[in-house]
Amino acid sequence: MGKREKGGFWVGLSAAVFYPVSWLGKRDYRHADKLPTEGAALLVMNHVSHLDPASDAVFVHRNGRVPRFMAKDSLFRIPVFGKMLAGSGGIPVYRGSSDARNSLSAAHEALRDGKLVLIYPEGTITKDPAGWPMWSRTGVARLALDNDVPVIPAARWGTQRIWNGYDKKFRPFPRKQVVTIVGDPVDLSAYRGKPVTNQLLREVTDLLMSRVRALLAEIREEPEPAGFFRAGGKRDAAEG
């Protein structure tokens, strides 16, 4: 691991809180060397539990980087936690409002400044009954295409066994294994330079999330499903 990126007071405070939280699980990091040690990068991950940000922040920080999370704007209004999130470079995501475009602008700026931006394209904890990544928002594709930076897929599994966001059950004991695996950068050269249409954004989004899903299948040692779960219980089989 190279020299650790400096983070300042709020990053230090976040680390003091998140590291103990991450100890709830038995951490297993795989291929962490594929995470860039410096320079801009877009880290694309799945989302299965409210513990994911703490787990993922520690993973990234232990590898010398400070993650800039793209997170729902409501999280920034939570006392103390919101201050920690904003102070450590978090990027609020506004949906259904005139501020929605500002979310991507802030992420673009972070990438231009050489930061590592971490995004959960699903936008919330997956609603797939089996925990696979669900149909995702296309903002990740716009970020990936508009910035010539490494786009790194990663998956994490196990946090949902500690804290399940849907049945609200917290099961810290016995300690569960939490596995994080990093994949190779996704080659998007075939898509760059093309007119940015909704179809192109959907194709790139599905490509990125299919790589995340494949990594999750590797962790789970299970075959991955075809397509992505959508509202109403349907599964979209069309992918890029």
Automatic annotation (TrEMBL):
CDD domains named among the record's database cross-references: LPLAT_AGPAT-like
A Pfam family it matches: Acyltransferase
Membrane-spanning segments: 7-25
Domain spans labelled Phospholipid/glycerol acyltransferase: 41-159
Keywords, in A-Z order: Acyltransferase, Membrane, Transferase, Transmembrane, Transmembrane helix
Record-linked InterPro entries: Plipid/glycerol_acylTrfase
KW Translocase (keyword) present: no
Family matches, as SMART domains: PlsC
GO MF annotations, alphabetized: acyltransferase activity
Protein name: 1-acyl-sn-glycerol-3-phosphate acyltransferases
Organism: Actinokineospora diospyrosa
